[in-house]
Amino acid sequence: MKLKHIEQYLQQLTFNFSNPKVHLEQYHTPPHLAATILHTIQNNYNDIDGKTVLDLGCGSGILTFGSILLGADFCFALECDKEILDIFIDNKNEFEITNCDAILFEINEKSLDSSVFKQKVDTVIMNPPFGTRNCGIDLAFVQYAADISKVVYSLHKTSTRESILKKIQAFKNVEQVDVIAEMKYDLNQSYKFHKKSLHDIEVDLLRIITSDYNNS
Amino acid sequence: MLLLTHNMLTSNCIKGVSNGYPLIIKATSIKKLESDFNPEFLIRMIPKLDWSAFYKATLMLGDAEISIPEKLIDSYEKDSEFLKKVHHALLEVEVVEGDLECPESGRKFPISSGIPNMLLKEDEI
Ligand SMILES: C[S@@+](CC[C@H](N)C(=O)[O-])C[C@H]1O[C@@H](n2cnc3c(N)ncnc32)[C@H](O)[C@@H]1O
């Protein structure tokens, strides 16, 4: 599928949200960026079409609905904020999608203990909080994702690349981690209530292969 | 919440609970959906399911249209009758309102607008 078509589709989603919670870093992935991410994952690695996908911190669901557009069999969507899931459900109904399901679930130190998802999903695609508000939450997301999935795609700040890569590499289930694309994140578009005017933030798209990758 | 999702949820994250699976479904509202039959997906997913939990879940809904055998049959890959039943039970029945109940502690996880709320308070974990 053409990048432009993915982007046009994703632009029709609703993102508006009257009460964004700053501590949860609830900015959505802009359609152009989301389309580029999903197009890259499918075209270069074939990790969406015919796969069971999980979207961690799904918010209004752009990565879920984009994955389904690109042929995912099913997408589990996990999110800790009930209010933003209302938008997710509106989008799901509007786009008449049935092969996804949302769960109110919080990633924390304990969530690994309840990983019934372990070995049930093929691909995790996520845009986790950067961890500016809740220190270390970005890595908690990666750790949970690497524990349950064969391969993980995750967005992180380029400015902290070295330390993030080092920490991810040390996770027990991680075989390999690569920066597969450098992208720009226009936070102004999605985070209007930010006081300061923000310019583009540089982000890395990481591909993390876990030890379950070859057992399929 | 679809039964596929129910198959993935546990309350083992609650402090002191070791046998929080499968969660008991107490549905007050159920919706039937129509979704595309995708046998390749089912063939990939069936071996990953906890079949006994799936079977129990269908019984908990108490709906005659939702029927799957207690034991997973052999060579289900070629049995499209069987796959269609699984498709319906797994992917076309949405629990819209109700509760999931921890089999050990009785802690209820409410399901509202189709979304199971698995959030725990800090003193529960
Ligand atoms: C950067 S946003 C991305 C949203 C969406 N995936 C997207 O791409 O547009 C991060 C999301 O993670 C959620 N989140 C933050 N902390 C979380 C946690 N501990 N557990 C689960 N979700 C969390 C936020 O509510 C928010 O929706």
Automatic annotation (TrEMBL), chain A:
Stored SUPFAM superfamilies: S-adenosyl-L-methionine-dependent methyltransferases
UniProt-recorded name of the protein: Methyltransferase-like protein 5
The gene coding this protein: LOC103505303
CDD domains the record matches: AdoMet_MTases (cd02440)
Species in which this protein is naturally found: Diaphorina citri
A UniProt-annotated Pfam family: Cons_hypoth95
Upper lineage: Eukaryota, Metazoa, Ecdysozoa, Arthropoda, Hexapoda
GO molecular function: nucleic acid binding; rRNA (adenine-N6-)-methyltransferase activity
Coiled-coil segments on the chain, per record: none
InterPro entries (alphabetical): DNA_methylase_N6_adenine_CS, rRNA_MeTrfase/Polyamine_Synth, SAM-dependent_MTases_sf
Automatic annotation (TrEMBL), chain B:
Stored Gene3D superfamilies: 2.20.25.10
Signal peptide, first to last residue: none
InterPro entries named in the record: Trm112 (IPR039127), Trm112-like (IPR005651)
GO biological process terms held by the UniProt record: rRNA (guanine-N7)-methylation; tRNA methylation
Single GO term (MF): protein heterodimerization activity
Pfam families: Trm112p
Entry similarity comment: Belongs to the TRM112 family.
Protein name: Multifunctional methyltransferase subunit TRM112-like protein
Organism: Diaphorina citri (Asian citrus psyllid)
Gene name, Swiss-Prot/TrEMBL: LOC103516369
